[in-house]
Amino acid sequence: MLIDTSTLLRTIQVRHPQYETVARALETLPGRGRDLHIVPQNLVELWVVATRPVAQNGLGSSTAEAAAELMRLKSMFPLLPDTPAIHPVWESLVIQYRVSGKPAHDARLVAAMQVHGFTTILTFDRTGFSCYAGIEVLHPADVAA
After folding, report:
1. Domains of the chain as residue ranges with CATH
2. What whole-number distance in Å separates Cα of residue 68 and Cα of residue 92?
């Protein structure tokens, strides 16, 4: 199962209302036989949000703090490789589903999922990923319930 970047971001926002929900989901899923994974794109997206100023909807972290978070996440979850096979799958998805703008980032996560043989994503975004055939969207609150 792939973890969406928005879900990973909650693990570093201890004051966020969704922090506890994510913590419980990440603790519960492995006990249910669900292996959790990340891809390089997760780390890039997390870096962007973590180091962006708070005034611009970021977390305002220093680069040192963001680097520490990347190390923490890589120690917690297997990091699947970017492979040359991901780009043509992504290109096919954005054309087939007529994706434009920021949702193209989600399409790349779906492409990585397909290349690595995953069908489930742990995410708060119930609609952004559900448009893709064969993708199961698992909301952290549904796990923790």
Report:
1. 2-144 (3.40.50.1010)
2. 35
